[in-house]
Amino acid sequence: MICILLVAGHGTVLETQIKNDATGLYGQLTGVPKALLPGIGGKKILDFWWETVNTRQLFSEVYLVTNADKYKHYERWATANDFPVENVVNDGSTTLEGRLGAVADLELAIRSRKLQDDIMVIAGDMLCADQNFDIAQVLRFFRSKPGELAIYYELEEGEKSSSRGIVEVCPETHRISRFLEKPQEGVTALRLASVVFYCLRKATLPYLSDFLTLQPQAQDRTFGRFWEWIINEEKLPVFGMKLPTGFQLIGQVGLSDYTKWLAHYSAQQQQCPAKPITCRSYARVGLMGNPSDGFNGKTIAMTISNFWAEVTLMESQALVLLPHPLNDPTEFGSLQDLYCISRKEGYLGGLRLLQATCKKFYQFCSKQGIALTKQNFTLKYDTNIPRQVGLAGSSAIVSATLKCLMKFYNITESDLPKPTRANFILNVETDELFITAGLQDRVVQVYEGLVYMDFSKQLMDEQGYGDYIPMDMSSLPPFWLAYLSDPSDSGRIHSNVRQRWLNGEAEVIDAMKSFAGLTDQARVALQGMDWSRLAQLMDENFALRRSVYTEDCLGPGNLKMVQLARQVKYRVKISKIISSFPMMFLCSFCLSFGVFACPMQFGSAAKLPGSGGAVVGLCLDQVRLVEMRRAFQEAGCVFCVIVPYNPSGTIGTNSQD
């Protein structure tokens, strides 16, 4: 690979305004070529690009193309910066009118030096907001694609698309489908701007001379016109890679814009290491339909603010992952202490989740054509989500880590949309760590709040994700949560159901369809605030799960908690019924309908909110809720009233209507 830096521009507005500046502030810059003007951090603009590409492992040679008018400046710069003077190419032009044009300058360097290799070409007079991006990642992406490469970025607020080459990029293949050179206002709403930063294959280099034959006028020999021709007319495959940063070609701006952008980018660099980034993700409870999310079903789930995972990222010299003192213990009081902790909590803490997320993040960005900076960081985490009780504690750590990485590397919502983000989190756990999991938890932790999810096969096949619909949380009934204080591994709860489903076993297929049907009914009940109906559906959800997974698979701890909730519920209900009806009527009523099917019961429901180890319930009576808490605590379980987490900031936790 050979790199060519272009700095052959002639007299510009900027150079003229510096020369005529009456303040005297810029007198020392008079006559200085624009690429040698001060850049970010006090470096000359060209210094940054030379430092970026001065790597023998990446480039066999680096050339610099300038004009005759400024040649001496760049010759002096070359000797002062250990740049090979013999690689400074003089295009012979001395005036703006006599210029060759950018494409002609590139073709001159290739022809005169008889270059026979892939070429990276960069405008050496370009201000770059990010001084740490990884150019090796750019080369890897280029070599992974069967075509040319154009770097682009997302225009900042205030930048006009009419001053840039605008690209339309296919989000799946990353191929540039259309190139618009400085389109007029209103022609396009696209905000992805190409810059003079390209990679061309050796086989494509002859197109340069073909283009020059078609464009005899220097003013038309721009890279914008070249790419319009190559992409829109010749239909050559050209791929786009996004740098999450900003660029400004100094040759295209005046003095005020140069100082403005220099100050803006410099301020961004100064702010980068200032404050740690802290992000939270919340535990979730599956209210309906789970575990059908892994079987093309439908679910409703909700994030709760009772429990959370928090990750903090701080810029640092080396990349460091800090173990959690409780969840990743490396020091024990005794062998017995090690035995007790390992028996209860296992051997796998949260550190592996941080590492797997970072690895997958780099892999994702490389594949998606997003070049990351070479900044390092330190990651640490904290969580109060109980382990192994099916409240999505692992995915909460992954989700919070991903939020930090996105903020640190300036990855936007368009780069990593919410549906894709949920898939990413699931892939971290399933592909990297072999954790049995479905999409529900990751979706609700990304969207946050109360979310209805449809994972139908048609949707998953057509778009790669389901339909995810946030629901109103302004008035929710009082849900409660109880979990085992000494749980077993909740991941074993799925048993052989997946294999039975893959084998097409009718019982499992029908059960997953029934879970989806219950979810649709629960959505209607939630929207209509029909809490008694919702409670009935929650009980039906558990009964269906019990039948398809069997009691042996669910385990005695989970069954005991559900039974305990219903025993408390029915004891209270019967006492209320007795106080309201004559005994003879009550007996005949219960014989007719059965206590457990009594349509007059409006107490607590109970089901598993996740893979096992906890139960979630719905109780409409505060007196009963107090009794419920006491009963669970006496049984050695932990009990709490759920506080829903609503991303809008408003929380509705109680409705008796």
Characterise this structure.
It is a single chain. This protein has 21 helices and 21 strands. The protein is α+β, with helices and mostly antiparallel strands and 657 residues long. The protein is elongated, with a radius of gyration of 32 Å. The strands form 4 sheets. Strands 1, 2, 3, 4, 6, 7, 8, 9 and 10 form a 9-stranded mixed beta sheet that branches. Helix 3 links the parallel strand 2 (61-66) and strand 3 (88-90). The model is unreliable at 489-493, 569-602 and 651-657 (pLDDT under 50). Helix 10 packs across helix 12 (418-432) and helix 12 crosses helix 13 (440-447). The chain is 39% helix and 19% strand.
Task: Describe what is shown at a glance.
With 657 residues, this protein is α+β, with helices and mostly antiparallel strands.
Layout of helices and strands, plus pairs?
Layout: E1 2-6, H1 13-20, H2 45-53, E2 61-66, H3 71-80, E3 88-90, H4 102-112, E4 119-123, E5 126-128, H5 135-143, E6 148-154, E7 165-169, E8 176-181, E9 192-200, H6 206-214, H7 223-233, E10 238-242, E11 247-249, H8 255-271, E12 277-288, E13 298-316, E14 320-321, H9 335-345, H10 351-368, E15 376-383, H11 393-408, H12 418-432, H13 440-447, E16 450-454, H14 457-463, E17 467-471, E18 479-484, H15 497-502, H16 506-527, H17 531-549, H18 551-554, H19 556-580, H20 583-593, E19 605-607, E20 614-618, H21 622-634, E21 637-641
Parallel strand pairs: 1-2, 1-4, 2-3, 6-10, 14-15
Antiparallel strand pairs: 4-9, 5-11, 6-9, 7-8, 7-9, 12-13, 13-15, 13-16, 16-17, 18-20, 18-21, 19-20
Helix pairs in contact: 10-11, 10-12, 11-12, 12-13, 16-17, 19-21
